[in-house]
Amino acid sequence: MNRKLTSGFLSILNAKILVSFVGVLSLPLVVRALGADGYGNYAFLMSTFSMLMILVSSGVTEGVQKFVAEERDLAGWREQVLGFYGKLAVGLALVGSVLVAGATWLGLVDGLLSPRFRIYFYLLAGLVVAAQLRAFVRRSLMGVGLEKYSESLVVTGKLTWLGVSLGLAWVGYGVAGFLVGKIAASALTAVVGGFVLSRHVSIPRVLRPSGPSFPRRELLSFNGLNIVLVLLLMSLFHVDIVMLRLLGDSAQTGYYKAALALAEYMWLVPISLQTLLLHSTSNLWSNDRREAISDLATRVTRYAFLLTALLAIGVYALADRFVPFYYGQAFVVLLEPLTLLLPGALGFALARPLYGINQANGNLRPLIVATGGAAAVNAGLNYALIPLYGMSGAAAATSVGYGSMFVLQVACARHLGYDPLSGLRPVRLLATVAVGAPLIVGLDALVSSTLVAFAVVPAVGFLAFAAAALGTGALDAEELLEAAELLPDPVERGVRLIVP
């Protein structure tokens, strides 16, 4: 990666690492503050909210991130894009908020769920506006190359939400307190981010109407198709939770959501890459540099496989120790769903960067077909398996849906004119897993102490897996040294001393 791409990736990755670290430390507090029943209801509300925000936000936020990053021969292009999407973002947020509040006032929530959910949905109506402004500001900052600010705000928002939410839960507000925390954190980051953005763009120009040559139709077409695309993508994240809550109960949903949270930590780097590649490959597509795109996609896919496979093996090996230690003994029931989720989580990790590259192309119809196929598989299997097997059925169905996403994204990539598997080295990758997995699982079995296992298995397992990757040729020494440049100086120097 070039210097600018590396800088953007590090800003996004570092923020996600910090947010994940805070999440790992705070999740047991959140689960204990809400209980399995309350946590299940909160997960259901957040899944419902996320599906709603697809219609309100997805076409706006990803559109501004993509188009503001492009270099076009049009005076004031950046400000015109920001102005167009800013007005659209506010309008859609107000419409969405009114619809949620109106539906709640008419009694639809009482009829479908229960009266206690009424206050939750009124708070969601306020969250629609706050979250829309936060997302628009963050994506705008990313599009103009200010990832160091946009991602710092993500960390600030996480800490604000956690502090407000746990404080309100402590005094008895429960799920409502967590929703208020979301509103407060979103509003704060939107205000601060808007101030930062105003220092780098001309606000008077942003507020002016777009010129006659501004390609409104192109942007609106991307928005409409992107809403469909993101709706299909987000269904992969939330259909299982919504179906499990409606067909099962809140406690079972809470256990399953806890298993998903552990599996999703494996996506830390792939999601960072997807976020970066959406705007960083737009210019490659506009200049028709398909060979460069193929090379970048292949390397990213290979690196994502090695890292995510290592994490999946580690989660599998340590889950029986970690889950009761982390969540409490009652959550041991999630071990089976977690194990079933791991293969699909690996496949979905490989799909995330390709999804970002395919989306940056701008031709969303093939991407909609590919993502729609995975969504259909996921929804159909969840509907068939949840009534029979509960949360284990949801995990198995979702795992297959996640895995199909990678296959279909590869097919979409080839349709668009590049091959993300051209230099993947699949035999060497599988050989690395075949060598590394038994070593890591066997080491865990040899260590009797839980705390010692937490300290020893990840460190020794990483070294063993890295050695296997170098030995099989899945990873070159030169590539390892390039990756080491992204690490802190003491670690980089250590790697350079060991690797020839």
Automatic annotation (TrEMBL):
<feature type="transmembrane region" description="Helical">
    <location>
        <begin position="395"/>
        <end position="417"/>
    </location>
</feature>
<keyword id="KW-0472">Membrane</keyword>
<feature type="transmembrane region" description="Helical">
    <location>
        <begin position="367"/>
        <end position="389"/>
    </location>
</feature>
<feature type="transmembrane region" description="Helical">
    <location>
        <begin position="119"/>
        <end position="137"/>
    </location>
</feature>
<feature type="transmembrane region" description="Helical">
    <location>
        <begin position="219"/>
        <end position="239"/>
    </location>
</feature>
<feature type="transmembrane region" description="Helical">
    <location>
        <begin position="300"/>
        <end position="319"/>
    </location>
</feature>
<dbReference type="InterPro" id="IPR050833">
    <property type="entry name" value="Poly_Biosynth_Transport"/>
</dbReference>
<keyword id="KW-1003">Cell membrane</keyword>
<feature type="transmembrane region" description="Helical">
    <location>
        <begin position="42"/>
        <end position="61"/>
    </location>
</feature>
<feature type="transmembrane region" description="Helical">
    <location>
        <begin position="453"/>
        <end position="475"/>
    </location>
</feature>
<feature type="transmembrane region" description="Helical">
    <location>
        <begin position="82"/>
        <end position="107"/>
    </location>
</feature>
<feature type="transmembrane region" description="Helical">
    <location>
        <begin position="179"/>
        <end position="198"/>
    </location>
</feature>
<feature type="transmembrane region" description="Helical">
    <location>
        <begin position="429"/>
        <end position="447"/>
    </location>
</feature>
<dbReference type="GO" id="GO:0005886">
    <property type="term" value="C:plasma membrane"/>
</dbReference>
<dbReference type="Pfam" id="PF01943">
    <property type="entry name" value="Polysacc_synt"/>
</dbReference>
<feature type="transmembrane region" description="Helical">
    <location>
        <begin position="149"/>
        <end position="173"/>
    </location>
</feature>
<protein>
    <submittedName>
        <fullName>Membrane protein involved in the export of O-antigen and teichoic acid</fullName>
    </submittedName>
</protein>
<keyword id="KW-1133">Transmembrane helix</keyword>
<feature type="transmembrane region" description="Helical">
    <location>
        <begin position="12"/>
        <end position="30"/>
    </location>
</feature>
<feature type="transmembrane region" description="Helical">
    <location>
        <begin position="259"/>
        <end position="279"/>
    </location>
</feature>
<dbReference type="InterPro" id="IPR002797">
    <property type="entry name" value="Polysacc_synth"/>
</dbReference>
<keyword id="KW-0812">Transmembrane</keyword>
<feature type="transmembrane region" description="Helical">
    <location>
        <begin position="331"/>
        <end position="355"/>
    </location>
</feature>
